């Protein structure tokens, strides 16, 4: 289940929010290791929340010191959606070369059927989704259903239900010049005990 709300933040306010977050967020670039090869994540990130968050074998340390602007955006989204979020992964795509590869937000700490509210500022980038293949397809994505959603300045995308279980998503690199884009993904993180949600 996905809901798209264009203009959730009006363009004038979105311009101001974008500039504030660009300069105030402590952006950092993290290093991944895949098959013993180290590589820099092709975007900058920052984490907010009382609990750590681990994805792709990278752990973001707890950071309870929310920027007031992020708290305001969180409260506005909570009022609109009826959900309460306790964590936020911020992503900065500096240009068309920055991206995130196919994945599902299905870490154990997110619980079953996680709700993710994704708020975009800056340049429009394409958010692609693809349905996970059935067992009979043996991991072959050739003929699966695909969606392409342009996420504009100030747009809110809400992912609910079995979206993470049944689909993958990505923001691909682009061939044409793109200005910077900030994406805020509000989440609900649960404490883990030995990898099992409490």
From TrEMBL:
In terms of one coarse class, where is the protein primarily found?
cytoplasm
Alphabetically list the UniProt keywords.
Cytoplasm, Dioxygenase, DNA damage, DNA repair, Hydroxylation, Iron, Metal-binding, Nucleus, Oxidation, Oxidoreductase, Ubl conjugation
**InterPro entries from the UniProt entry:** AlkB-like (IPR027450), AlkB-like_sf (IPR037151), ALKBH3 (IPR032854), Oxoglu/Fe-dep_dioxygenase_dom (IPR005123)
UniProt-listed Enzyme Commission number(s): 1.14.11.33, 1.14.11.54
User: What GO cellular component entries does it have?
Assistant: mitochondrion; nucleoplasm
The Fe2OG dioxygenase domain, residue ranges: 84-190
**Can you supply a Gene Ontology BP term from the record?**
DNA alkylation repair
**Any one GO MF annotation of this record:** mRNA N1-methyladenosine dioxygenase activity
Q: Which EC main class describes this enzyme?
A: oxidoreductase
Q: Quick check: keyword Nucleus in the entry?
A: yes
In terms of Pfam families, this protein maps to:
2OG-FeII_Oxy_2
Q: Do the record's keywords include Nucleus? A: yes
The similarity annotation says:
Belongs to the alkB family.
Report what the protein is called: Alpha-ketoglutarate-dependent dioxygenase alkB homolog 3
Q: Please give the organism.
A: Ceuthmochares aereus
């Amino acid at each position: 289940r996905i809901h798209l709300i264009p203009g959730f933040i009006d363009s004038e306010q979105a311009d101001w929010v974008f500039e504030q977050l660009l300069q105030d967020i402590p952006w950092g670039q993290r290093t991944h290791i895949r098959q013993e090869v180290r590589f820099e994540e092709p975007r900058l990130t920052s984490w907010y929340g009382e609990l750590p968050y681990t994805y792709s074998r990278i752990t973001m340390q707890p950071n309870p010191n929310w920027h007031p602007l992020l708290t305001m955006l969180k409260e506005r989204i909570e009022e609109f959606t009826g959900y309460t979020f306790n964590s936020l992964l911020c992503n900065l795509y500096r240009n068309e070369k920055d991206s995130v590869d196919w994945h599902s937000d299905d870490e154990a700490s997110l619980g079953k059927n996680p709700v993710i509210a994704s708020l975009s500022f800056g340049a429009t980038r394409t958010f692609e989704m693809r349905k996970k293949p059935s067992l009979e397809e043996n991991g072959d994505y050739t003929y699966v259903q695909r969606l392409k959603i342009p996420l504009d300045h100030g747009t809110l995308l809400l992912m609910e239900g079995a979206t993470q279980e049944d689909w993958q998503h990505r923001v691909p690199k682009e061939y044409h010049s793109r200005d910077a884009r900030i994406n805020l993904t509000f989440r609900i993180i649960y404490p883990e005990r030995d990898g099992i949600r409490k």
